[in-house]
Amino acid sequence: MKEIITLHLGQTGVQVADPLWRLMSTEHNIAIDGTQLPCPNDWDFSPISEMCPEILIGIDCKKTNGNYEPIFQETRDGKFYGRSVLIDPDPETIGRFKRLYDHGLYMSSNFLTSDDSCGNLFARGFMSTASMMRPRICERIRRMLEECDLPEGFIIINSLGGGTGSGLTAALLNTLRIYYKNLVQLQVTLFPTPQATTVEPYNCALHEYKMNDNSCIMLIDNQALFNALTPMRRSSNGFEAVNNIIAQLVSNLTIGTRFKEISEGLISLRDLRFLLHPTKNLRYSSFSYSPFTSKKTYRYDKWYEHELTIDCFTEINQLINCPNIEKTPNLGTCMIYRGNLNYFKAKECAGNYLRQLNGGLQTGVNVCVSQKNTYHLDENNMPKAGNTACKLSTNLALKNIWEKTYNNYTTLLQKRAFLHWYENERMTSCDFDGAKEKLCILLDEYNFMLKK
């Protein structure tokens, strides 16, 4: 049934869990206590249904509720639990989540913590914490996979700035690659802002060095997310709104699998990895989303195939802070549309714009259109339902953020700043030299593709 297991690692991953699983449960008409609701709530807030309530007659509830099995597990007593594991060695993070958000969508055995945090150090997460927690995590994942009919892969939500998100994630995914080499690994990763120059450059470089080459990594950053959620477009800003947008992006990754009957151009995790991982080293891609608009203005704007496509390529809608990303060619692009849209029009709009962007050259593009309306959580201050689009692309402009990381990394390394923290966790100079060399190889490949 192509089940997908979501791994929430570190503080960032755990904080995204609540909006993500509330969103998933809403899309599949499941209450927060894990029970199935009787009516298709997707239509309760639709602008069309407000004007024409008679269209509610004859709705196919099965099509509207979709196929929950890829992301939810149903127990014998009819309860639904998300196929997720929440992992953070800091007990305070997991404890706070349980106090605030632990309701019927999570199994208690899927909360995994330890006695101490990683202290924002890749070395501690990769060495000490991994040696303590990895056996428990792998055992929990093994049991979850045994309950699946045909598992497809993992979605990992993490941050490269922290010790858990960078170090423990790298150690865990390398182990999963050994045991489950046929399962896809897709990472939705929060990248540190360029201004973060304490130990974040070390963590990013070492993560790139130690990670297996099988994982496909989709980068976002807080600065770009806050830029998209500007005061002109929203009445308030905060990390809750940012987490809600990240949840929306993760939801779009699986929309074709969960709503096959009302989707065209189906996109699975394996399709995404094939499209967005063109070479061994170029495995990084970026997100954009459209529209970012308020409830008040949405009803007066027209958001159809052409408008959504153009808006996805504008600078303000890019969710990674990278210069000239809207003007730089893409090696592979995936456009995911949701709402009352036409598949062939959407495919034509996306293809025409990408040919124009790439100077007439044809590059890989995949389009998925799902008739399942996008649902925004109430605190988003965005329209609850409507037409939306999400773009994922292997953009060559991502070279700029890795170039900045390389410069910060070499500056810290020359000064031997904070190295004693890493050396105390049994990391050697060979690790730092290897990370520097790996970044050089990555930048060289970006430069080669840009010249080509």
From TrEMBL:
GO terms for molecular function: GTP binding. One of its GO terms (biological process) is microtubule-based process. Residues 68-261 form the Tubulin/FtsZ GTPase domain. GO terms for cellular component: microtubule. Pfam families: Tubulin (PF00091). Transmembrane segments: none annotated. This is Tubulin domain-containing protein. It comes from Rhodnius prolixus (Triatomid bug).
